[in-house]
Specification:
10-stranded antiparallel β-sheet; alpha+beta; homodimer
């Protein structure tokens, strides 16, 4: 078995956005699906981990993509893991055309959390086996790492009460759902005509059903194409920090 | 080619709801995808119709399902058309296990709308060919037709401003997105523990980006497991009428 996996998809009808390309929601969730299936193939997937009361939790996600595949187009997601730290592991993704060229790439950081204590497991102390065997050191894809996301004069632009359809199998608000909530607050015409090129998200805290989520935003003074966001609970706790960059 | 099509899927990670079964949003959109792919196989799909400035518009949808497939389970969607009226056509779906038994079924009614005049095409006057050839008369699946949805004393329970991620390729709010907006207004604990068994939706009017949608609800006095909904624009125009029935 190769240390990476390729999963084949096609942009089916009703998975596109208004511009006719696979929607960010579908693309993002497909990446998470591939992460989970790749982990499962190597014995550290959801089913393996939940037996020991652990779940993988997404901590950082950067997606940087020239263009998303269009309606009807086949594409594949390649995913692999390149590093293992004490509390985190780096997983990468490439979105590939059938000829092997890349639409774009993504990088993510995950922690393995104890569902009872909420503490991260020490990944260097996991049982020997396939996890360490599949690391592909030095294979970070060619995208910039997450940049600074400090907001000056943030504005509250929307609230959303987390509900049933927002939840994943763990009862948390789905990681990609936050991306949709923020995309919905960008200028819809600019999103449609220019398109979003890069999405950076830091996941800080989990949200649950009935949580009131506040969506705060601010311009990035250093980059007019980049918009900063925070999603906060009414207590002020930050759930998500993010940046969305429109195509130039 | 058979007059019906079977499309194979598997419940991949991150497509489930909190109960570990394929989410209603994913299941509903997969049905629409299969409808579109089946139509495309027979020469009356999106690409064929848009050339003549027509699009298929969903008018009614009833989904009645014993249980939804669980995480990891393979399933297939069978879809076919049984009747063609002047302005409408009846399309059905079965959600099948690998052994051919049914998780449940769905029935839908579609019109073919002129994108410029917004008027429905006369389906009996379409060019000769595969459409009439694939009708399967008398094959309505064994589910009750849409029942009465008259609300007494409706309550306004939420508003939602339609935004980028709600839109389909035609720029309309996605048909299944309305179902999610209403599911989110049911009691989340009941939805999780009992589960929704039947969803009935009448699509009356299209909504667009930036439309303020009001979600109104009322109990069904004849059936305590059934909750009625309307989604209205601020003008009072009804966009969607619907009913959701919890498992007994």
């Amino acid at each position: 078995m190769t240390p990476y996996s390729d999963f084949d998809y096609r942009v089916e009808p009703f998975t596109e956005d208004v511009a006719g390309r696979i929607s960010w929601g579908n693309l993002g969730n497909i990446m998470l699906r591939c992460a989970s299936m790749h982990a499962g193939l190597h014995g550290f997937g959801y089913e393996d981990m939940i037996k020991g009361h652990h779940v993988w939790v997404l901590s950082r996600l950067v997606i940087d993509i020239d263009e998303r595949p269009r309606s009807g187009e086949p594409f594949s997601i390649r995913t692999w893991v390149d590093k293992l730290y004490r509390q985190f592991t780096d997983r990468h993704f490439s979105v590939l055309r059938p000829d092997g060229s890349a639409y774009g790439h993504a990088s993510s950081i995950w922690a393995l959390i104890d569902t009872e204590t909420r503490l991260p497991a020490d990944l260097t102390q996991l049982p020997e086996g396939s996890f360490a065997d599949i690391l592909m050191p030095g294979t970070t894809p060619p995208i910039a790492p997450m940049a600074r996301m400090r907001m000056k004069e943030p504005q509250l632009v929307a609230t959303h009460k987390a509900a049933y359809c927002d939840l994943d199998i763990n009862g948390h608000v789905n990681s990609i759902r936050y991306i949709e909530l923020m995309l919905n607050r960008l200028d819809a015409d600019a999103v449609r005509s220019l398109g979003v090129r890069r999405i950076e998200v830091a996941y800080c805290l989990e949200a649950y059903c009935h949580d009131e989520l506040q969506i705060w935003t601010a311009a990035d003074e250093a980059n007019p194409a980049r918009t900063l966001f925070e999603i906060r609970k009414t207590t002020g706790e930050v759930v998500v920090k993010a940046a969305f960059t429109l195509r130039a």
